Amino acid sequence: MMINNSLKIALRNFYKKPAFSIINVLGLAIGVACFVLTMVYVNYELSYDDFHKHKGRIYLVTTTISYANYSVEDKLQTSGPLAAELYANYPEVIASARTFGGMSFVFRHNENLFKERNLLFVDSTFFDVFSYEFIEGFPQKALNEVNNIVITESIAKKYFGNEKAYGKSLRTLNDNYSVTGVIKDPPKNSVISFDILISMSSINIQSASGSTIWQRNNYKTYLALQDGVHPKQLESKFPALIKAKIPQIHGQDIESWLAIGNRWEYHLCSLQNVYLDLEGNGVYVIGFAIVALFLLIIACINYMNLSTAKASTRAKEVGVRLTIGASRRKL
């Protein structure tokens, strides 16, 4: 009954002063809407790579190097041999995989040519680390051989329409690539963006990217750690690894090179923090959240101020409600 009476009074006040009521309610509604929409965006930014099954145990290895006039902090690329070395000799690591990007291919299908820029070369163990939903093919052997490719659902429809893509081929000017898997389009809020995955063994990148040279950092290296392993536990072993694998730098032994203040370090960054911390987006997300909160506060204060300014015109209503027994809480 109390709610019905309050609603009737609100409607009467609206009909008596429609302009004032519209301005007051609209101001609050716009403020709340802006707050909600901004927080939806903030939540989207905070959910990067949440779709991976073991997201809390996946880490990107970064490289920090400092000497002479050169300095880089937490570079996203590491050396080619690192991933295999860590998986083979460090029990904390249950899976490792490299990615190598920055190239584009022109694929031919029937009489059509398509230039694909969003592609990655990845190790055959890529799906041991990351979780993607396969529509066609099997993740365990999808990238095991030369010229194997895994494509997204949208790319499959682009080239093959409604036909099955598994087992079909895409040809470049020089090579023929076999489609060994089709996955659902990955969410856009991921630090690993691709339309096509190509097996790392498909092209000769030995000389171009230094896949066997410890002092060339051209690969992104991802690790999946054992459950319960703290990243610092593995990081503590990296200095000894660096000294063993890079005995000399610029003709100087590594011990002496480090002793004079130079740095060569590997660090682990959780996949959940790559987008916010390493790529520098965390500051913007915090800024948007603060702006959203201020919008909500300002809208509420504005609504209360306008309502308070008109409170004196409701003296008769308050008096009548007090007379018939309304409590202070109900008023």
Notes on the structure:
- With 331 residues, the chain is α+β, with helices and mostly antiparallel strands.
- The chain contains twelve helices and 15 strands.
- The strands form three sheets. Strands 1, 2, 3, 6, 7, 8, 9, 10, 11, 12 and 15 form an eleven-stranded mixed beta sheet that branches. The chain has a two-stranded antiparallel ribbon with strand order 4-5.
- Strand 9 and strand 10 form a beta hairpin.
- The model has no long low-confidence stretch (mean pLDDT 88).
Low-confidence stretches: none
Helical amount among residues, as a percent range? Answer: 25-40%
How confident overall, as mean pLDDT?
A: 88
The number of helices is: 12
User: Which of globular, elongated, flat, extended, rod-shaped describes the shape?
Assistant: elongated
Instruction: Classify the oligomer.
Output: single chain
Total number of β-strand segments?
A: 15
In brief:
Helices cover 40% and strands 24% of the residues.
Per-chain topology:
Blueprint: H1 2-16, H2 18-46, E1 58-67, E2 70-75, H3 82-89, E3 93-100, E4 105-109, E5 112-116, E6 119-122, H4 126-129, E7 134-137, E8 148-152, H5 153-160, E9 169-171, E10 176-183, E11 196-199, H6 206-209, E12 220-225, H7 231-235, H8 238-245, E13 248-249, E14 252-253, H9 254-259, E15 263-270, H10 271-278, H11 282-309, H12 315-323
Parallel strand pairs: 6-11, 8-10
Antiparallel strand pairs: 1-2, 1-12, 1-15, 3-6, 3-12, 4-5, 7-10, 8-11, 9-10, 13-14
